[in-house]
Amino acid sequence: MAYLLKGVSILGAEPTDLFIKDGVISSDKAGKDAEVIDASGLVALPGLVDVHTHLREPGREDAETVETGSRAAALGGYTAVCAMANTSPVADTAGVVEQVWRLGREAGLVDVQPIGAVTVGLAGKQMAELGAMATSAANVRIFSDDGFCVADPKLMRRALEYVKAFDGVIAQHAEEPRLTEGAQMHEGEVSTRLGLTGWPAVAEEAIIARDVLLAEHVGSRLHVCHVSTAGSVEVLRQAKARGVRVTAEVTPHHLLLTDELAAGYDPVFKVNPPLRTRSDVEALRQALLDGIIDVVATDHAPHAVQDKECEWAYARPGMLGLETALPIVLSVFGEQWDLIADRMSIAPARIAGLAGHGGDLTKAGTPANLTLVDPKARWVVDPGGLASRSRNTPYAGLTLPGRIVATFLRGEATVLDGKAVK
Amino acid sequence: MIKHLRSAADLDAATATLILDTAAEMAALSGREVKKLPALRGRTVVNLFYEDSTRTRISFEAAAKRLSADVINFSAKGSSVSKGESLKDTALTLQAMGADAVVIRHSASGAPHRLANWVDGSVVNAGDGTHEHPTQALLDAYTMRSRLGRLDGLKVAIVGDVLHSRVARSNVLLLTTLGAQVTLVGPPTLIPLDVAAALSEKTQVSYDLDAVLPDSDVVMMLRVQTERMQDSYFPSAREYSRRYGLDMLRMRKLPEHAIVMHPGPMNRGMEIAPEVADSPRSTIVEQVANGVSVRMAVLYLLLGGK
Amino acid sequence: MAQPRADAPSKIILAGSDLHRVVDRIAHQILEKTSGATGTVLLGIPTRGVPLAHRLAARIHAFEGVEVPVGSLDITLYRDDLRLKATRALGKTELPPGGVDGLRVILVDDVLFSGRSVRAALDALQELGRPSSVQLAVLVDRGHRQLPIRADYVGKNIPTALSESVKVALTEVDGADEVKLIGGLT
Q1: What is the CATH number of domain B134-287?
Q2: Spans of all domains in chain B
Q3: Of the given ranges (A42-56, B212-226, B228-242, C127-141), which has the lowest mean pLDDT?
Q4: Which of A122, A137, B47, C172 has its CA 20 to 30 A from that of A275?
Q5: Is the ipTM of this complex over 0.85?
Q6: β-pair type (A3-10, A142-143)
Q7: pLDDT digit string (tens) for C83-136?
Q8: Is A198 on the interface with B (CB under 8 A)?
């Protein structure tokens, strides 16, 4: 199938026609036999890449599957997502990562790139067979125990060193577990008022500080998941200034929401790391602008209804993110298309080693992984209207700017007219 | 009148005072031979207790029965709750049974807030996790007012494990609403972060009990669980008791008129010496009796009208 | 029951010394009917029944030198219309030190209307003891009884329409002594 996108604005530039043929951007502007799409007023972005997605399969198919999560991703403008390892069974062997990778191919809506666990069963005791996962069909490059921190400093050092052999990267969930026992929300004024056990910012900052020193010491790459505090930003700023090979992500929810939302005890606002304060939100926004934080990652975490319709303490942490990430970023930063393309597509593709994503749409021959956004459209988030199998969005009822009109994966439409093609 | 009593923050000064005044009338009526009043005839009050607390449950039960309400006790043990039924499903069951009020005790902070989303009736918080226990604060305020004649300008020291205490949170909110000056006293490990900003800007914090006592009208000792030692909040029971326990020697530092309170159950010898607990300054037994009157007032004001 | 509007026309029925004379008359009637008010307790029904009871006791003392114990009897918790209105604040219930057992209790209220308040008062009184007999004194009887209840002492009978209301003001509560008829046709 060939497409001619008429009058499209690439990253906000003057309108032009974009011809997609044989899976790539074509220089042939004639567009014969192509399906013509009126793209006037629409902005083309390289397909978004999420380095932090929970697809829940295998194990919790009642919350999400690779297929439903892929559909949600495509509708959110994504062409690639990295699937976290905390499934059941854990993605700590070549067998499990290949299963997830294959399910992604079968769904065919986005490239599903599995992340491998750092330790067996995410238990933090014994290193998983990272090399086997790297050389499997899934070609794993990111390893993470996300959900848990690789807290043992010796194990963390070894993992950082070990993955150098195949250009891997450890993505750390930075949370000193002894400082967050029983933690329910950000430790501060609101947790004191609500009587919920606090999750202190220092528990994140201490691990990031330790890990950048370890990465520096062994000369390895480190990626920091879901940075949530102003203090973490300062640690990263110093590390980057020293030349440490560290990258970091921030979630859309940490760029927008604060701990005050816990006041009604609705667990839809329970997430790990927790929502922080207004000043943390401001620091994270500035860090993303400055490039101290490299990427926006969704930490899309679907949960079944019963895991959220309960007492706060019993609820599982996490929020949906794939279908709202771009609108949230647009609402926070406005139409800064170069920034958005870099932080949501180009940089994450680079970190995840996903060649073919985050390419230059003005160049002929670039793989046609792209998404079309209507920046003027406004829509109201309706949890029931989302493609994810779960409903735990914290943005229900919110009016957001920016609607995904179409998404293309290697030249094939996965979304057209705002609807998934399959 | 308010619909729910989930937090002492639900009460403004006028409403809190109305509850205390009503409790005083209830106390006068309850003192008489026949203790049943017809005000809540035909109303159903459910005691939904996920935590063992015979004292609080009996107090609410007595209060509801003296107002002629029908009382259903729904305790976590031996019910569908222990079979893993969710709070929401339990709430829908109570709703179907026509509960006009649900008195809930739960180990999870905020459980009463969640429950209020799922039932039409009033929700009364009888203690939720480490959050609040508003009727305890009301009975404490009632006790202070009846012993000392006022609350406005009263200096109240709350001593001990404030961090984990729902009694302390509710008392800070209610007492400051009613004009009292609260000082929280304890080791820094047990005083929560940003407590003044979180609860009331007027709240003060001190780590030195001896310095606070001479200027206190009320000293309220909180229960300190010895398990806290394992979690490094303080080194030993002995050291805690030496620094923050109320013994006879320390009690003498209090002004002549000052009273000693404790929400119970007490750790005698830990936060409070037996001679102090049994002294005439102690209001511990009165607090229990006042609990019924205050809970009658709350139930009447929530359920008595349209 | 329909209430007249706030701006409805009103008419003063009793004021100042007229009202005092009416209270005096009730006090005399009590003395007459109770053989000198011995063994008698006056229980005022809050709000305005309480100061009325005190006035009656004072007049009885002035006329015959008899000390009649006075108390108050709150009926809120015994009302049959609790659920029809927003929650009401409680009034005071205070019995004189001698209680009511074996004594003649005279309930005192400002206005007798449907009789429902008196019914509630009888229920409340029953919980407090066992009087030898119960009587009722009211400043105004405006008719329209809904229960088989009759006053033993009436200051003034005021025929009214249901659309009208009777408002008693007493110095102790309202700063003036006055009985007003509000609403209806004048």
Answers
A1: 3.40.50.1370
A2: 8-132+288-303, 134-287
A3: B228-242
A4: A122
A5: yes
A6: unpaired
A7: 888 888 999 999 999 999 999 999 999 999 999 999 999 999 998 899 999 999
A8: yes
For B93-118, give the DSSP string. Answer: HHHHTT-SEEEEEESSTTHHHHHHTT
Enter the pTM of the model: 0.92
Q: How confident is the model at residue B231 (pLDDT cuts 50, 70, 90)?
A: confident
CA–CA min distance A180, chain B (Å): 13
Quote the tokens at residue A95: 């067998």
Cα separation, A325 vs A373, in Å, equals 13
CATH number given to C18-79+90-163? 3.40.50.2020
Q: Is the dihedral of CA C108, C109, C110, C113 positive or negative?
A: negative
Distances (CA, A) of B231 to A116, A178, A207, A356, B234: 35, 11, 21, 52, 8
Q: What is the pLDDT of residue C63?
A: 95
DSSP track, C7-68 = TS-EEEEEETHHHHHHHHHHHHHHHHHTTTTTTEEEEEPTTTHHHHHHHHHHHHHHHH----
Pick from A265, A266, A268, A309 the residue to mutate for testing the B interface (most B CBs within 10 Å).
A265
**Contact of B213 with B157, CB cutoff 8 Å:** yes
Q: Which CATH architecture has domain B8-132+288-303?
A: 3-Layer(aba) Sandwich (3.40)
How large a percentage of chain B has pLDDT more than 70?
A: 96
Yes or no: say if A384 and A305 are a contact pair by the CB < 8 Å rule. Answer: no
Report the side by side order of strands in the sheet with C104-112: C70-72, C40-44, C104-112, C133-141, C153-157
* pLDDT digits 0-9 by tens, A33-86: 899 999 999 999 999 999 999 999 999 999 999 999 999 999 999 999 999 999
Domains and CATH numbers, chain A: 47-358+379-400 (3.20.20.140)
For the beta carbon of residue B25, count every other beta carbon within 10 angstroms. 21
Where does the pLDDT of residue C186 fall: very low under 50, low under 70, confident under 90, or very high at 90 and above? very low
Pairing of strands A3-10, C40-44: unpaired
Any idea where the domains of chain C sit in the sequence?
A: 18-79+90-163
C2: confidence class by pLDDT, cuts 50, 70, 90? low
Question: B109 to chain A: which residues are within 8 Å by CB?
Answer: 184, 194-196, 265, 312-313
Closest CA to B168 of B202, B124, B127, B206: B127
Examine the pLDDT at C3 and tell me if it is beyond 80.
no
Residue range C43-91, pLDDT digits in tens: 999 999 999 999 999 999 999 999 999 999 999 999 999 988 888 899 9
Q: Mutual orientation of helices A325-333 and A278-290 as an angle, nearest 10°? A: 90
> Hey, is the C-beta of B34 within 8 angstroms of any chain C C-beta?
yes
Q: Which residues of chain A have pLDDT under 50?
A: none
Residues of B in Cβ contact (< 8 Å) with A189? 193-194, 197-198
Confidence of residue B225 (pLDDT cuts 50, 70, 90): confident
Q: Do domains B8-132+288-303 and B134-287 have the same CATH topology?
A: yes
d(CA B218, CA B172): 13
Extract the runs of DSSP E, i.e. beta strands, from A231-274: 246-250
Residue in A287, A99, A321, A302 with CA at minimum distance from that of residue A208: A287
8 Å CB contact of A195 and B132: yes
Q: Are strands A222-224 and A169-172 parallel, antiparallel or unpaired?
A: parallel
Distances (CA, A) of A163 to A101, A118, A127, A132, A240: 20, 10, 11, 11, 21
The dihedral formed by the CA atoms of A65, A70, A73 and A78, expressed in degrees to the nearest 10: 150
